[in-house]
């Protein structure tokens, strides 16, 4: 069985404890972070019986699948999302399996970004290394209002962190999200406009879908306070194209902390978000953490072994199995 694992940017998958589960199989781990053409992807995946995808790093569409006649299985780490054309896989008799997600690492990273951005630690540390002492003045979190759009697993963890830091929580989202937040003792915003206007820190924690794509607009952002912070560790496409930079340049919000980008990986040091003086940018580290990797890849490898062992599990398109493919 030939298994291909693309986009291991850090070259760490072989170091995971769960990797030993694939012992005895023909496993090829690819590391190149550069975007690849259709022809390059087809060449890299040629003769693969199974692909193990790292979240959404590799786009799988009908044109690519047509170049992969040997492919029988795509084992997704975490849940299937818009990067993978599930209908095209089904039409070609390719089984897709998926695993679990975890809110722990993304929520922790979001909080690290909030703390660092508010206390302005990166510029202070950079200046200190250059021989300068106390060059700026940060802000404490206590008393500031944390706005959470999307009160799911990550949003709920952030709300608990906020309570430990004496931050009132303001929630916006669906009716069910706002009701759940109120049941937990938090305040639901009276309106979308009030949410952006009242929060000192806004964290966007929505799943990307056609309904949420470009959901956050320039008008939303420019309603924020001059010293407010916008945090996005979810998906860049949740914000309208160009809106964040335009809003920052108008002075509302005053700061941003981002972990996600419309085109990834970002390899250009001249990227406008990396160069902006009031943006704290990290290279999509939200889920990139050892415990999470063991969970994601452990599930994915188990799904590979189960499929080729004749007992498929966690199948996202069971109609392929029903058709006898």
TrEMBL record:
Gene3D superfamilies associated with the record: NAD(P)-binding Rossmann-like Domain (3.40.50.720)
Keywords: NAD, Oxidoreductase
InterPro entries, per database record: D-2-hydroxyacid_DH, D-isomer_2_OHA_DH_cat_dom, D-isomer_DH_NAD-bd, NAD(P)-bd_dom_sf
Domain D-isomer specific 2-hydroxyacid dehydrogenase catalytic positions: 23-316
Domain (D-isomer specific 2-hydroxyacid dehydrogenase NAD-binding): residue spans on this chain: 112-286
One family name in Pfam for this protein: 2-Hacid_dh_C
The family this protein is said to belong to: Belongs to the D-isomer specific 2-hydroxyacid dehydrogenase family.
Protein name as annotated: D-2-hydroxyacid dehydrogenase family protein
Species in which this protein is naturally found: Pseudomonas juntendi
Upper lineage: Bacteria, Pseudomonadati, Pseudomonadota, Gammaproteobacteria, Pseudomonadales
């Amino acid at each position: 069985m030939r298994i291909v694992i693309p986009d291991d940017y850090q070259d760490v998958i072989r170091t995971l404890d769960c990797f030993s589960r694939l012992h005895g199989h023909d496993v090829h781990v690819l590391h190149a972070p550069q975007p690849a053409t259709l022809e390059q992807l087809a060449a890299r995946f040629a003769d693969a019986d199974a692909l193990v995808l790292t979240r959404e790093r590799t786009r799988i569409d009908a044109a690519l699948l047509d170049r992969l006649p040997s492919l029988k299985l795509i084992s997704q780490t975490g849940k299937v999302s818009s990067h993978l054309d599930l209908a095209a896989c089904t039409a070609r008799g390719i089984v897709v399996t998926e695993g679990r997600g975890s809110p722990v690492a993304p929520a922790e990273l979001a909080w690290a970004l909030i703390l660092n951005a508010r206390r302005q630690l990166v510029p202070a540390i950079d200046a200190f290394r250059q021989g300068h002492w106390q060059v700026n003045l940060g802000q404490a979190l206590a008393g500031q209002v944390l706005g959470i759009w999307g009160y799911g697993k990550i949003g709920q963890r952030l709300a608990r962190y906020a309570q430990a830091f004496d931050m009132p929580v303001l929630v916006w989202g669906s009716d069910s999200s706002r009701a759940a937040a109120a049941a937990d003792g938090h305040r639901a915003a009276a309106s979308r406009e009030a949410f952006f206007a009242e929060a000192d820190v806004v964290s966007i924690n929505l799943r990307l879908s056609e309904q949420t794509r470009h959901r956050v607009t320039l008008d939303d952002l420019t309603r924020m306070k001059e010293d407010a912070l916008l945090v996005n560790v979810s998906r860049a496409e949740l914000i309208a194209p160009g809106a964040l930079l335009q809003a920052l340049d108008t002075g509302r919000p005053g700061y941003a902390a981002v972990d996600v980008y419309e085109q990834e990986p970002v390899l250009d040091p001249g990227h406008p978000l990396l160069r902006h003086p009031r943006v704290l940018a990290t290279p999509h580290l939200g889920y990139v953490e050892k415990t999470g990797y063991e969970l994601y890849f452990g599930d994915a490898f188990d799904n590979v072994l189960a499929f080729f062992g004749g007992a498929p599990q966690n199948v996202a398109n069971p109609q392929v199995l029903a058709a006898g493919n």
